[in-house]
Amino acid sequence: MSVAGPFRILTLNSISQAGLRLLPAERYEVGGHTEQPDAILVRSADMHQMAIADSVKAIGRAGAGTNNIPVDAMSQRGVPVFNAPGANANAVKELVLAGLLIAARNLLPAVRFVDGLRGTGADLDKLVEDGKKHYAGIELPHRTLGVIGLGRIGSLVADAGIKLGMNVLGYDPEITVDAAWSLPSQVRKAHSIEEVLKNSEFVTLHVPLVPSTRHLINPVRLGLMRHGAVLLNFARDEVVDAAAVVEALVAKRLKYYVCDFPSRAFDGNPGVVALPHLGASTREAEDNCAVMVAGQLRDYLEHGNIRNSVNFPDVAMERESPFRVGIANANVPNMLGQISTAMAQAGLNIHNMLNKSRREMAYTLVDVDSPVAPAVVQALAQIQGVLAVRYLPAPADA
Length: 398
Prior knowledge:
Elements: E1 7-11, H1 17-20, E2 28-31, E3 39-42, E4 58-61, H2 71-76, E5 81-82, H3 89-104, H4 107-115, H5 121-131, E6 144-148, H6 152-163, E7 167-171, H7 177-182, E8 188-189, H8 193-199, E9 202-205, H9 219-222, E10 229-233, H10 242-250, E11 254-259, E12 272-274, H11 283-303, E13 323-330, H12 335-345, E14 350-358, E15 361-368, H13 374-381, E16 386-391
Parallel strand pairs: 1-2, 1-3, 3-4, 4-5, 6-7, 6-9, 7-8, 9-10, 10-11, 11-12
Antiparallel strand pairs: 13-15, 13-16, 14-15
Helix pairs in contact: 3-6
């Protein structure tokens, strides 16, 4: 059982003060050495080998991807993992545009050429004039940009491509209603990844790394791309088969591979432009991610509401009573009936209840009209399939 604060938050990375300010000192103890934390805030730290304390009730990732967090293990414990989808979208979009321009205008080899120049005055001028013809590029208007993945980032990239005068071809079999509404009408819909690859001079990837997208771009699909095409990957490194990319560059099928993920496989390859994972590395993006995830974490710890969890459904309910119970459980039949029965047997009147499920996980919020005794919380926790129970009386200043 837990009550509404004070809460202990363990930070595994440096988290923007813009977000930490949302966790008031009178209710939250925040630090990098916090013991028995109620929640963890993390950016890039790898948690897979970490011993995560039993006291942890939630994990907040100040970013979009959660590959560094053992999400499945947390689900089994009834612990929601929050992220900040879209908070760094503009930062990634701008980096993709930089990658487009680097490739289109051959900027990286041009910079390397200039770095190697010797001489001064007229001698230098002659070297520049003689060498620059090797780095002539192309302009982007009327070129086709293929966007695979049309979430928040992909939609912004598609819109930016249109504003640059490009023809944009998009593909996303799981596009959400909100993403579809935000997508510019000029984006042409492709019916397959193969259609995008065959018809685009530039292809940019914006999909999560899940089993179905690992090596999404493989030797067969690279073989479909136009000769001299450019592939941009600012999603996740293993979405692309690195060895296949190297082969495609050697064969001149790909002109450039522009990515945010350095790899020894690319050492010395002039066709690779690899950046040191700069996608979300702007002050604004770090602030936005921290603010978003800190707010979600606080709302969960104090009120049990879930927004933007990668392993639980969104469940948010306005308080209609100061006495609230949050229940994480497996998505199995008759769970609501058992919860209601346990509360009725304890003499509790249910004022309001909200239950939602997401694949194998479910979550229930219940507002009741009177305080909930520890024995009731214990009884709820013993129901088969219940993973975690939290009693959430309203904070004194709520």
